[in-house]
């Protein structure tokens, strides 16, 4: 086996381990025992990787502006995409380039336009290229065409760890988009930028970050467009209807024990016949297998929508998803002038919106009853809606948009540019079992797979399903079979238990056939 293939196998294994730790919390948020394997490959990267073919880029400094290279795996739906776009659009003092390591499909035109207008280049690497090749291309791009690297990290990114495991090159700023997850990157990050103070505290305590800072998520003030009446007319929403809105990725609405967004929404809608709730980011068909109750006739799941701004224009009140909230979606709603009801009684502070600019005026309800009461107050009191929406918008305009945010960005640039790139080995991490870790683990147990037969109180069966699924993922089919059989014995007439047992019984042969079919 040649060096590139051998190194690539190690990087793939590190990537899988990081993905696993991010999806099944292991009591760790960073771990040198895993990350240092990729780091050591990066130290001798030129010996491991053959260069990707293509014309070398040359991005000169124009008018003395700094050259910022943004790095991301892909432009998937979510808050990280919005942050990247808003950063490039808001910052006119820099030339911005973007390298996408694993993007499949067309890049949204607005990103091409934003990068071009700033004077930079947009580069997409072949998704099927070796990880070592991607790392080498990224290293060369940073060496030759950047004064500062801004790595928009998403969990299990491994190529940048290998790419930046050399003292040659500009400082590396890591943007912590997943502050509730295990991730790779502390070994090569000269500065970890957190989007809220709670995330910075965790980075310092549990991620071996050498230097941290906090910067608000950049937002763009919505331009005056269609009116509320026009938005409602386009969406088919009556003028006298009270419209509730929630925006978030599909997984954010899945029930966990007593936390059940759909059930709570049903209670609110039953109390207020003229009220409808629109959820952007999930479909009724996709969430149905996770639910323990019917979807209310006035609860509308709209699916994934690239730009939900028309819904914000039409809405009266914004509800944060729970048990998993959405920082960017909540902030965009508040910037639009909508009053917000945040998620109640968070399992873990970083699983919900937790923005420094709003903490004193937007506390989380203590329980479901308080959440419902807050929504009811805003439904019944239009003046309260206007007052809260106005207060939230003013805060965000001061901290997340325009002059206020640009001042924070200038301070970030000044801090980053005073640093010298200094990659280093990080320590191995031991498993911790604080209440925070336990709650995060339990959330993965209860929401990770669609087992519609598991009631909110049947923690034992949920645990058996989860244990069997995790064992299957890591290839321990004997353990998977044992847990699945225990689930079958617990309730013989539940199809999900038998299905899980069947998959565990087939074992590696089933994995082989699934891979064969996927490549057919």
Keywords for this structure?
520 residues; alpha/beta; seven-stranded parallel β-sheet; five-stranded parallel β-sheet; 21 helices; 46% helix; disordered C terminus
Secondary structure category: alpha/beta
Percent of residues in helices comes to: 40-55%
Report Rg. Answer: 24 Å
Arithmetic mean of pLDDT: 88
Global shape: globular
Number of strands: 12
Distance between the termini: 26 Å
Lateral strand order in the biggest sheet: 3-2-1-4-5-6-7
Summarize the entry for a quick read.
This protein has helices at residues 3-23, 32-43, 45-48, 79-90, 109-118, 131-145, 159-163, 197-206, 228-235, 261-271, 284-287, 309-314, 327-335, 368-380, 382-399, 402-417, 435-447, 459-473, 477-490, 495-506, 508-518, and strands at 66-72, 94-100, 122-124, 148-153, 172-176, 191-194, 212-214, 242-247, 275-280, 299-301, 317-319, 340-341. The chain is α/β, with parallel strands linked by helices and 520 residues long.
Describe the structure.
With 520 residues, the protein is of the alpha/beta class. The chain is 46% helix and 11% strand. The chain is built from 21 helices and 12 strands. It has a 7-stranded parallel beta sheet, with helices on both faces. A 5-stranded parallel beta sheet has the order 10-9-8-11-12, sandwiched between helices. Helix 5 links the parallel strand 2 and strand 3. Helix 18 runs parallel beside helix 20. The radius of gyration is 24 Å and the shape is globular. The two termini are 26 Å apart. The C terminus is likely disordered.
């Amino acid at each position: 086996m040649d060096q590139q293939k051998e190194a690539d196998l190690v990087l793939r294994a590190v990537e899988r381990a990081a993905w696993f730790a991010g999806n099944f919390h292991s009591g760790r948020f960073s771990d040198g025992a895993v990350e240092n394997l990729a780091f050591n490959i990066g130290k001798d990267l030129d010996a491991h990787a053959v260069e990707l073919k293509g014309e070398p880029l040359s991005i000169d400094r124009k008018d003395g502006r700094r050259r910022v290279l943004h790095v991301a795996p892909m432009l998937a739906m979510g808050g990280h995409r919005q942050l990247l776009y808003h950063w490039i659009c808001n910052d006119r003092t820099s030339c911005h380039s973007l390298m996408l390591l694993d993007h499949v499909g067309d890049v949204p035109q607005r990103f091409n336009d934003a990068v071009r207008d700033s004077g930079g280049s947009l580069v997409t690497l072949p998704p099927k290229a070796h990880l070592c090749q991607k790392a080498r291309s990224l290293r060369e791009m940073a060496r030759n065409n950047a004064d500062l690297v801004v790595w928009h990290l998403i969990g299990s990114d491994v190529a940048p760890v290998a790419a930046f495991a050399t003292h040659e090159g500009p400082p590396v700023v890591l943007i912590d988009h997943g502050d509730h997850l295990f991730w790779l990157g502390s070994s090569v990050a000269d500065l970890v930028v957190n989007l809220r103070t709670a995330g910075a505290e965790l980075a310092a305590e549990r991620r071996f970050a050498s230097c941290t800072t906090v910067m608000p998520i950049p937002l763009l003030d919505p331009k005056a467009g269609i009116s509320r009446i026009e938005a409602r007319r386009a969406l088919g929403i009556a003028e006298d209807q009270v419209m509730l809105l929630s925006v978030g990725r599909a997984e954010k609405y899945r029930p966990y024990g007593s936390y059940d967004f759909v059930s709570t929404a049903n209670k609110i809608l039953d109390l207020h016949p003229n009220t409808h709730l629109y959820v952007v980011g999930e479909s009724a068909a996709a969430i149905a297998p996770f639910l323990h109750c019917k979807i209310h006739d006035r609860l509308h799941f709209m699916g994934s929508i690239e730009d939900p701004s028309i819904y914000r224009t039409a809405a009266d009140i914004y509800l944060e998803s729970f048990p998993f909230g959405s920082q960017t979606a909540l902030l965009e709603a508040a910037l639009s002038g909508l009053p917000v009801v945040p998620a109640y009684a968070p399992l873990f502070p970083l699983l919900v919106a937790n923005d420094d600019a709003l903490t004193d005026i937007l506390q989380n309800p203590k329980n479901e009853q308080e959440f419902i009461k807050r929504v009811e107050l805003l439904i019944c009191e239009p003046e309260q809606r206007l007052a809260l929406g106005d207060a939230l918008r003013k805060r965000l305009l001061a901290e997340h948009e325009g002059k206020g945010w640009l001042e924070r960005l200038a301070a970030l640039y000044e801090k980053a540019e005073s640093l010298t790139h200094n990659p280093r080995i990080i320590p191995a991490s031991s498993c911790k079992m604080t209440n925070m870790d336990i709650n995060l683990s339990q959330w993965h147990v209860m929401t990770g797979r669609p087992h519609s037969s598991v009631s909110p109180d049947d923690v034992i069966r949920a645990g058996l399903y989860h244990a069997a699924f995790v064992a299957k993922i890591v290839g321990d089919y004997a353990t998977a079979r044992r847990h699945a059989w225990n689930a079958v014995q617990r309730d013989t007439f539940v199809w999900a238990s038998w299905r899980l047992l069947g998959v565990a019984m087939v074992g590696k042969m089933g994995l082989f056939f699934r891979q064969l079919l996927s490549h057919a």
